[in-house]
Amino acid sequence: MSAFEVLAILASGVAAGTINAVVGSGTLISFPVLLAFGFAPVTANVSNTLGLAPGSLTSAYGYRRELQGRGRQAARLACASFVGAIAGAILLLELPPAAFKAIVPAFIVVALILIIAQPRLSALLAARAERRQRERQHEGPALFAGVLVTGVYGGYFGAAQGILLLAILALGLDESLQRVNAMKNVLAGTANLVAGVVFVFAAPHVDWTAVGLLAAGSIAGGTLGARYGRRLPPAGLRALIVAVGIVAIVRLL
User: Fold this and answer.
1) ∠ at Cα 5 (3, 8), nearest 5°?
2) What's the pLDDT at 136?
């Protein structure tokens, strides 16, 4: 691995960790970088999941103030992410690599649509969260099912997993959008960590150098995102994610 590749992968980890803390689509930064340097799609995905897991946990810790008083709720919902992530990771390992290569471009297209629609989606979710606060409704089976399915997606691939979680949680919880974002970080971090553990013991497709570089970068990025991420210009951030997502689609096809 050349010095340029080392620096690029490390920088992509910082960017992905920051974006995951704020929105939740950092995979669309780091995954295409690995593809660009010649990693096979499944190897890139497994290594990316392992590398970004520490950053997800760091960002969740950075939002700990928004989680005060919600520990039991976070634990209950994390159980759904836990189970879903195991299922998703097993699917990734059991299905042929050709299936992943064929399916992922469609996943990325959906993720990019969500990112482009994110401003409108955030406004709708904020209004919904305000209504839920007035109504004082609490999580039900539909919310657990949504988190479970998102966990499966996170274990299998996970691009824009955070945006999906934001939508599901804002519709199902009586919380402000910032507290919903904190919960999103916990659940996405759980899914990434669980899938990563499965990959450590069962995946033959791991590049540990890339994992280490992404982990170091994502830890720094998760810390920065939790502390300063709200200051990032949203339009520029979305444009960057869409650009690298298109690169990933072209590379896969």
Assistant:
1) 110
2) 47
pLDDT digits (tens, 9 = 90+) for 159-204: 778 778 877 887 777 777 677 878 888 999 899 899 999 999 988 8
CA 7 to chain centre: 22
Residue keyed to tokens 């050709």: 98
Contact indicator for 154, 81 with CB cutoff of 8 Å: yes
- Rg, the chain, Cα only: 17
Share of residues in the chain with pLDDT > 70 (%): 83
- The answer to whether 238 and 23 are in contact (CB under 8 A) is no
Q: Which two tokens stand for residue 69?
A: 């008083």
Tally of CB atoms within 10 A around 65:
10
d(CA 138, CA 190): 21
Q: Whole-angstrom Cα distance, residue 7 to residue 108?
A: 25
Handedness of CA 128, 126, 18, 227 (dihedral sign): negative
The token pair at 123 is 């406004």
51: tokens are: 């590398």
Give the span between the Cα atoms of 91 and 100, in whole angstroms.
10
The token pair at 196 is 């990563």
Nearest to 88 by CA among 167, 159, 197, 191: 191
- Chain centre to alpha carbon of residue 56: 8
62-114, pLDDT tens digit by residue? 878 888 887 888 899 999 999 999 999 999 999 888 888 788 888 778 777 77
pTM tops 0.90: no
Cβ-in-10-Å burial (0-12, 13-18, 19+) of 241 comes to buried
- Dist CA 108 CA 242 (whole Å): 10
